[in-house]
Amino acid sequence: MIFQGDIIDLRQNLNLMKRIIWTYGIIAGSITVLMLAISIPFMDSPEFMERGELLGYATMLVALSLIFFGVRTYRDRHLGGAIPFKRAFFVGLYISLVASAIYVIGWMVISGLFLPDFAEQYAQSTLQQMESSGATAEEIAKHKSDMAYYQELYKNPLFKAGITFTEIFPVGLIVTIISAIILKKN
């Protein structure tokens, strides 16, 4: 039987969970967008294009480590030190979704204002990498054709947002699963 006090406790718990999700998600997403903004002046460099992905994913991993701290904070401060895997997973998942949405919005704004030709630059950079690594003329021609197709798709904001989301969300999902495994306590 559920009593009125139980319902009030449940509402308070949900409000605390929402606050943690939004707080940690916004901070994690803001870190990724800040790094994007800082790296704008370097994005036209071929060397940066080669190493930029590694820097970007490292930044995402550092930012999304806040999922661990968000779940731990929720568990320790609001659940008395115990959290089942499922709840830990969903708190982490929601933090990841908030951070991913902020990252997507940030990239859409930054690329629209400062990098309108990013897809072309990226395509050119990958073709240069292929040439310098000794790829055959057929491989380069095929890649050039593929890149032209994706450049055209990238002009569609929904496609661009979807691709951008798939850059960060899988990282957040992995961090979420690991965090839920580590932090679960019954």
Topology, please?
Blueprint (H helix, E strand, L loop, with lengths): L3 H36 L6 H19 L1 H13 L6 H30 L3 H15 L4 H18 L2 H27 L3
Helix pairs in contact: 1-2, 1-3, 1-4, 2-7, 3-4, 3-7, 4-7, 5-6
List its salient traits.
single chain, 186 residues, 7 helices, 85% helix
Explain how this protein is built.
The chain is mainly α and 186 residues long. The protein has one domain. Helices cover 85% and strands 0% of the residues. The chain is built from seven helices and no strands. It has helices at 4-39, 46-64, 66-78, 85-114, 118-132, 137-154, 157-183. α1 (4-39) runs antiparallel to α2 and α1 (4-39) runs antiparallel to α3. The chain is elongated. The two termini are 22 Å apart.
Question: How many DSSP-defined strands?
Answer: 0
Distance between the termini: 22 Å
Mean pLDDT across every amino acid position: 89
Strand percent estimate: under 5%
Task: Figure out the total of helices.
Answer: 7
Low-confidence stretches: none
The description of the largest β-sheet is: none
Structural class: mainly alpha
The H-and-E topology, N to C, reads as: HHHHHHH
Query: Which descriptor suits the 3D outline?
Result: elongated
Helical proportion, percent range: over 70%
Total individual domains: 1
Q: Give the radius of gyration.
A: 21 Å
Briefly characterize the structure:
With 186 residues, the chain is mainly alpha-helical. The chain has one domain. It has helices at residues 4-39, 46-64, 66-78, 85-114, 118-132, 137-154, 157-183.
